[in-house]
Amino acid sequence: MAVDLRGRNILREADFSREELSALLRLSATLKADRRRGNGQPLLHGKSIALIFEKASTRTRCAFEVAAAHLGAASTYIDPASSHIGVKESAADTARVLSRMYDGIEFRGHHQQTIEELADFATVPVLNGLTDKWHPSQMLADFLTMGEHASDPESLSYVYLGDARNNMGNSLLVMGAIMGSDVRILAPESLWPTSDVQELAQERASESGARLLLTADPEQALPGAAFVMTDVWVSMGEPDEVWAERVALLRPYRVTADTMSRTNRSDSRFMHCLPAYHNADTVVGARIEEDFGLIGGAEVTDEVFESPASIVFDQAENRLHTIKAMMAATMGSQPLP
Questions:
Q1: What is the pLDDT of residue 114?
Q2: Residue 246 CB neighbours (<10 A)
Q3: Quick one: which of 39, 122, 173, 242 has the most CB atoms within 10 Å?
């Protein structure tokens, strides 16, 4: 049965059914395979997309620009200094202007409410490149990557360690609930997703049969997990002062070789949405090492990041293919198979 996402917004995972998300993942895999064989088609020839970035990014910007190029579409990058949203022009007015010029709008920014307002007033699809609450483009990439490496792609098990109050914690919990996965959130209780997100996940899990676990105990969360995930402990835009508090809370949840061994699986894989502070080769990484004594990495050690278990660059590449699928499905002229 065809899945028709033409004209739809992609703002958060919970707006979609398991069948719709599965169709997006199948399309992602098809577009990836076509590109590898040199058979890519300009499915969006003559179309264009506006890329609004309140928050800078390497992977998201490159993925959207290259995806547009592969699909035959034009793209316009609107950087943080160029966007007047909320300063000189409302999100509503921005949406109405850009809808007259473009066939789609991508937004990567600080607040979910901004992209919701863009979607309310736009007459073209609005795609979420990241907000404070949800990260659907990353979820599609993560699930495509896990599917490529899992022994049973239909029954995924993963554990997320770190600050789970952010977009990654929210999205991994809810996406897994929709997809029927075995999802474990491993973090201090103060850093779990909010109650409304947990309730949403439980509702979707009751439909799919997903298993959800939120715990501060590694002995409950790690055994049997096929994938171990983490993210930076301090997000872009947060003040440097929170580092000390976050390190004190999350040091026990650092992903180390011991963490990986406690899954009791020889085939467990490590994932990270990047950038990662896995060594002292960056300004921030060096400062973390000097200030807090986290030698060889903060949220993940360099030993794990550079190990054969790490599939972070497969994951990064898949941002391109899943974003291409998001654009083709919502801005294209054909429903998904």
A1: 96
A2: 20
A3: 173
Q: What is the dihedral of CA 8, 271, 162, 58, to 10 degrees?
A: -60
Active-site pick, 12, 59, 273, 278: 273
Q: What are 206-223's pLDDT values in tens digits?
A: 999 999 999 999 999 999
Residue 120: φ, ψ to 5°: -65, -30
pLDDT computed for residue 1 by the predictor: 66
Which tokens sit at 46?
């003559």
Give the mean pLDDT of 16-37.
Answer: 97
> At 300, is the pLDDT very low, low, confident or very high (cuts 50, 70, 90)?
very high
Using alpha carbons, list the distances in angstroms from residue 193 to 109, 116, 135, 154.
20, 20, 14, 25
Could you confirm whether 84 is annotated as catalytic? no
The pTM is what?
A: 0.96
Q: 300 phi and psi, to 5 degrees?
A: -145, 140
Distance separating alpha carbons of residues 209 and 194, to the nearest angstrom = 21
Q: What is the pLDDT of residues 224-251, one digit of tens each?
A: 999 999 999 998 778 888 999 999 999 9
* Per-residue CA distances from 262 to 221, 259, 276 (Å): 9, 5, 22
Nearest to 56 by CA among 110, 96, 122: 110
Residue 273 annotated as catalytic: yes
Q: Does 112 qualify as catalytic in the annotation?
A: no
Q: Which residues, including other chains, have CB under 8 Å from residue 90's CB and lie 6 or more apart?
A: 117
CA distances from 92 to 98, 113, 288, 305 (A): 10, 11, 40, 42
Nearest residue to 176 (alpha-carbon basis) of 336, 321, 14? 14
Confidence tier at 178 by pLDDT (50, 70, 90): very high
Phi then psi dihedrals of residue 233, to 5 deg: -85, -20
Based on C-alpha coordinates, what's the Rg of the chain?
19
Catalytic residue among 8, 12, 61, 135: 135
Q: Decide if pLDDT at 87 tops 90.
A: no
